[in-house]
Design a protein that fits this description.
The protein is an alpha+beta fold. It contains 7 helices and 12 strands. This is DNA-binding protein.
Amino acid sequence: MAAADTTPQQTDVPTREVAKRVFAAELNTATYTFKTSQDERAPVYVALPTGERANRICIAGTVTDIEDVGESAEYLRARVVDPTGTFWVYAGEYQTDALKQLKKVQAPEFITIVGKPRTYKTDDGSVNVSVVPEDVGVIDLETRNAWVYETAARTLERVHSARETSPKVAALAREQYGHDGSSFAHVAAFALQDLLNVSGHDAMSGTSLDEEAFEKRLLEVESEDSAESSGGDVDDAADLENESLSPEELGKQLGDPSGVDSESD
C-alpha cells in the first residue's frame, strides 16, 4: 500500500491579517498606503505613524450618528467617537453583513468594529482616512473601557518597539510623516487619563476600575523621552508601493460609483 503524500500543499487562499487596535487620533493621520508586491490581490496597508503596518483594524467607541449618504444605493456613513477623536465608517452593498448590523444600531450606543482602513483624496488634495467595516457589534461600557485600555497598551508597545520589530515600516513612517510617532504615547496617556476621570467607577457594575494599572501606564508614558529621533534612511523600504485611493476608486470598492462624501460635520 502506497504511503500517503504528506508534502504540504501550497494554497492561493490569502491569510487574514491580525486586526490592529488603534485610536482615532492615530488612524486619521495614517494617510500613506502601500503594497508589498505588484500582485493585484496583494493587501493594501496603511503605515501607522507609530511604526507598524495595518491592513485590518479593531476600533470601538460611541456611535453618534448614522446617515444614508448613497445616491442610487444604500450607503451608510457612521460617526464613531473614541477618547481621542472620530472614526468615519462607510458601509455599502459590498459589505452586506456589516451593513445589516449597522442598520440595527441605535445612536448613541457603544459599538466595536473590525474592518479595513482606506484612504481617499479630497478635492483640495488632502488625504482622509475612513473605515470599511467587516463586522459590527453593540457592546457595553465595560467592553468599551477594556478596548481603550488595551488600545493604549498596544499604542505604547508600537511607540517603544516598532523600530526593532518592524524597522522597514517604521523608517517609511518617519519619512512620510516627518516624525517617529512618539507623540502618540501622550495620546495613549490622554485616553487612559480620560478613562480614569470619566469611568473611574463603573456605574453599570458598581465596581471600581483598576486604577493602579492605569497609573502604572501613565507613569511609563511620563518617563518616556518624547524627543523625536533622527530620521533614518529607507533603502530597505523600496519594495513598498504607494497605493492611495481616489474618492472614485474608494466609492467603486464600496458600491457607490460617485465616490465618498468627504465632508465632515
